Each structure stands twice: as C-alpha cells, then as structure tokens.
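This part of the workshop introduces the protein records we will be handling. A record pairs a protein's sequence with a compact description of its fold. Backbone structure tokens are a discrete shorthand for how the chain folds in space. The question running through the whole workshop is how a given chain folds. The record below serves as our worked example for the rest of this section.
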Amino acid sequence: MDFSSRNVETGFQHLCESVFVRLCQIVGTSVQVAFRRETENISEMLRRRVAENDDVIVMEIGSYREGFRLKESDVDCMFWPNSHRVIWDMCQSEYYYTENKTLILLDSSESPPGFTLLELLTPTTDKEVQSACVPMNDRLYISSSLYRQQTQAHIYPGSTEHGPC
C-alpha cells in the first residue's frame, strides 16, 4: 500500500468516525436506542394488560417508536383490537385462552425485507378484520392494506397512507 492510498483510507476512517459520533449525538448510542425500544415494549405491554378485551390498542411503529423525534419524521401507528394477539411462533399460542382471543401468526419467512404475512389462526368476530381476510394456499391471511382502508377513514379523517404493506 502506498502513502497516498493510506492517507485516503485514514481520511475515510476519520470521516466514518465523525459521522458515527454525530449520529450518536442526534439519535443516541445503540445502548440508548435499545433502552428506548425496551421502554416502549414494556409500556405497550402494560397498556394491553389494563385494556378491556374490546378496546382498541394503539401501537407506534417505525422511527417514532424507536424514540427518534427527527424534524422530517412522520408518525406511524397501528390500531388493533385488543382481542387480537399477534404471535411470532406457534409455541406462543399456548399462552392464550382462544375463547376470547383471536390469534394471528406473523410470518416473514417467505417475505422480502419490510413485508410480512399475517395468518389468521383462530376465527374472529371483528367485521373489519373479517373483511380484510384473503384466502391463499388453503390459509386465511389478513391484508393490512384492506384493513387500513376499512379503519383509517374513521380514525384519522383526511390522513394518508404510504407504502404498500
């Protein structure tokens, strides 16, 4: 390696370190981000515990949930019936009494990054969820875009959706 390429490499390393330091000043360290995420997870769990079965739960998603309050950031949130529980693994189903809870399996195994399938595992009586269901390969999946169309108008009149989900 000659002297000029070593200077470029060293300069690039200093630039990367400077960018990292500035990002940490803006958004925090990875430990701070993890702490904000865990705090929000606990908060969400507590809100669900005290909510009635027929209440609607508000879940923040995206950068706002992570604790970022950047000037240009939007606020992404989901509204979901408390009687519907999303699980990530079938073994979690044993923790729910399915007489009063509808179980939904989140499956991202065959989806591109940023996308997931929501499989309805137990019947639902929620009309909006029922009307958002789409049969595929002998299973019933919930279309988030259909669900959003069903619910968005009454929750936030005039709001806009973005990104296909």
The radius of gyration is 21 Å. The beta strands are 56-61, 76-81, 84-87, 102-107, 117-120, 133-136, 139-142.
